[in-house]
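Friendly challenge for the regulars: who can give me the structure tokens for this chain first? No prize, just bragging rights.
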Amino acid sequence: MSGGPTRSRAGGRADGGGRDRERPPAPEPLPHPVVDNHCHLDIADGPDGDWLPTERAVDAAAAVGVTRIVQIGCDLPGARWAVEAAAEHPALVAGVALHPNEAPRLAAEGRLEEALAEIAALAASGARVRAVGETGLDYFRTGEDGRAAQQESFRRHVALAKDLDRTLVIHDRDAHDDVLAILDEEGVPDRVVMHCFSGDAGFARSCLDRGAWLSFAGTVTFRNADPVREALRLAPRDRVLVETDAPYLAPTPYRGRPNASYLVPVTVRSMAQTRGQDLAELCADIDANTDAAFGGRW
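First reply, four minutes later:
Bragging rights claimed.
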């Protein structure tokens, strides 16, 4: 792949208009390696498109102690790309799925079954595909008319994760109760990661009761994220993960600028402060938790 191309996600976020889109500087390296548990290396989110090619992104992350990355594909092109990238780059493993907002569109086009079949084939394609995700529910961008397709797609992904012994990576936006209800109805897979955890302490307890890991993105550093920080303080040491969701959700003070795995140290330092935990200790926890959450070390 020669470093890998960069795609633009259809219907993705705007480039921020007049906001500063310059790539943030590299932070001080972490005292212990950690993992970016959710990244979209294939998606461009800047005015110049391919602002940080894959090989450079991986190298920049490693230079500050982010030595491994979970590359998430959330549509068919992205899922194919994630599998290819994980095969080429030892630092990467792949997750494949149809994003919740993809399901209603594919259903309307009569292509949902075909797309789910390809996701199943990709998920079974090799040991470097560790996750089925991101899947789940998103009631923020999809209205009532699209929810049945989202829920059916989510159920199918849950079953796939269980059948293949893959980690289920859940996208949950404004749909906490239905996410939990579907998990309970379908049966919770052995390994579940709540991607970009967005709930409060009560929802965190509900997820933890079902054996989930909570993955915190740059949003945990935002000024208005007190409920998320409460959840972070509540989470046991063995259930905490960190992610970027890059190129989105850059942490404070770079909110609104393109995110990348090399900025994970900014988020981890904020998390350590919130938890009142030693930084090196938290890094070691995240590293070990990633192995447990994604089926072993790579």
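The chain has a mean pLDDT of 92. The chain has ten helices and eight strands. Your move, everyone else.
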